[in-house]
């Protein structure tokens, strides 16, 4: 599914070949993973919300999430306000992640999000994080540099970026140190 979404994104941006993005996560050496999160109910909150997973962006190329239909996922709007994502146990939620923002030279923006926990129901989510191989060099694709050929990001390896994400705080804009 993640590869299909990435191929549709590539098509929409006019990127050739069509698998330019998807092959990064389809590679046998990709740093992709599946994670299951469980947020138990917290009756002592009495209707108040508690941060279950702090605000962040995902560092990989793409993340695909499915939950059990319990609310909790919120995304940050451009004005800095938080919007709840309506839960739907029959749908998938796709996040553009940091590496995809770099590859598209900022045409697609990594989504800042968080999880809040309620007092009533447990929340379970399953997330596929599509990451490239550790040695993969990341930089904006030439087709997306525009007329001036300006790259918003310097070239770096996935290993270099992933290592840098572990050094900072979760909520920090981790891509800023890779900007030109």
From TrEMBL:
InterPro entries: IPNS-like_FE2OG_OXY, IPNS-like_sf, Iron_ascorbate_oxido_reductase, Oxoglu/Fe-dep_dioxygenase_dom. Residues 29-132 form the Fe2OG dioxygenase domain. It holds the Pfam family 2OG-FeII_Oxy. PROSITE patterns: FE2OG_OXY (PS51471). Signal peptide: none annotated. It comes from the Eukaryota. PANTHER family: 2-OXOGLUTARATE (2OG) AND FE(II)-DEPENDENT OXYGENASE SUPERFAMILY PROTEIN-RELATED. This is Fe2OG dioxygenase domain-containing protein. It comes from Aegilops tauschii subsp. strangulata (Goatgrass).
